Amino acid sequence: MRSVNLTLKNSSGCHKTMIYRVKPWLMASRPKTLTAAFIPVFLATMLAKNDGATINWEISLYALLAAICVQLGTNLVNDALDFKKGADTEERLGPVRVTQSGMLSFQQVMAGGMMCFALALLFGIPLMIAGGLPLTVILLISVGCGYLYTGGPYPLAYTGLGDIFVLIFFGFVATCSVYYLQMGSVTPQSLVAGAQAGLLATVLIAVNNMRDVEGDEKAKKYTLPVRFGLLFARWEVTLLLVIAYGLNVYWLFRGEVWAALLPLLAAPIALTLVRGVWKQPPGMIYNRFLGMAALVHVLVGSLVGIGLMVP
Predict the structure, then answer these.
(1) Residue 273 maps to which CATH number?
(2) pLDDT tens readout for residues 23-52
């Protein structure tokens, strides 16, 4: 009996140790942002199926894994370099950052980011084989920009270009690339789907930057709210959502009624988010707004994709 008890205690201790080791990495991964990797792949695949393609599910899976790894690598490098550049301090309003808090070292987090970028290229090999030189170039640029989001001499996030990066790469590039791999072409409908995915993903970074505006200004991180003020940022969030929803008219005219109407189920959340950023000054409540932005992104993207499958 005593040996059994010792075994149970040792097992419990190992379990707690594993959780302790894994938890910082889960925090650094920023799960709420991972919708930016899923939605473009899902939308592109559903749209290609709607347009008559015989779906190669392995290609979509590899594309999803590559996109997730690019997102994870970007998040980890951002965590490490924001701390090094002084943007993440004890005064930050957002979730705890693992490098700043000391949960993981700068070297560990940077190494994790580089490993994720390497995995993105590994998962991208089938995509490069299937898509040839265009997909090879796209994947290499995507990984490079993932690092340059916070790294390099002119990091995108520090020059106000982070929003454009998200719109382009987690919208048009990711969606149209997967659609191209499935259909062999890029069409107007794939561009519209890419625009919706990118616009809604950009809402996340816009809300995040509004929350951190004071700390970013001190750290000379010139995001759009720092450069142009909170009024501009509030209009940015509003217009991103309005345009994303407005593009549903395209699906309606194309005869995809369900793809146009189902996203309206998420409209109350989007309206609450818009009212919130207009009424509330930057503060802890913006963590809630960020969660709402992620929810709108995943709901609208998923509902458009599901709507494309309804006869």
Answers:
(1) 1.10.600
(2) 887 777 778 778 889 999 999 999 999 999
Q: Concatenated DSSP letters for 245-295? A: HHTHHHHHHTT-HHHHHGGGGGHHHHHHHHHHHHHSPSSTHHHHHHHHHHH
pLDDT at 215 over 90: no
- Give the number of other Cβ atoms within 10 Å of residue 300's Cβ: 28
Q: Report yes or no: 146 and 74 within 8 Å, Cβ to Cβ.
A: yes
pLDDT above 90 covers what percent of the chain? 65
CB 259 within 8 A of CB 308: yes
**Residues near 280 by beta carbon (within 8 Å), at least 6 away in sequence:** 286, 289
Residue 145 lies in a domain: yes
171-195, pLDDT tens digit by residue?
999 999 999 999 999 999 999 999 9
Q: Say how many domains are in the chain.
A: 1
Residues 271, 10 contacting (CB under 8 angstroms): no
Q: In this structure, is residue 28 part of a structural domain?
A: no
Residues 6+ apart with CB under 8 A from 53: 182, 183
User: How far is the C-alpha of 139 from the C-alpha of 126, rounded, in Å?
Assistant: 11
pLDDT score of 88: 59
DSSP letters of 55-92? --HHHHHHHHHHHHHHHHHHHHHHHHHHHHTT-S-TT-
Is residue 4 in a domain?
no
Least confident of 14-23, 110-119, 199-208, 290-299: 14-23
Conformation bin of residue 221: beta by default, left when phi > 0, alpha when psi is -120 to 50:
beta
Residue 8 falls inside a structural domain: no
Q: Which of 15-29, 141-155, 245-259 has the lowest mean pLDDT?
A: 15-29
Q: Are residues 69 and 119 in contact, defined by beta-carbon separation less than 8 angstroms?
A: yes
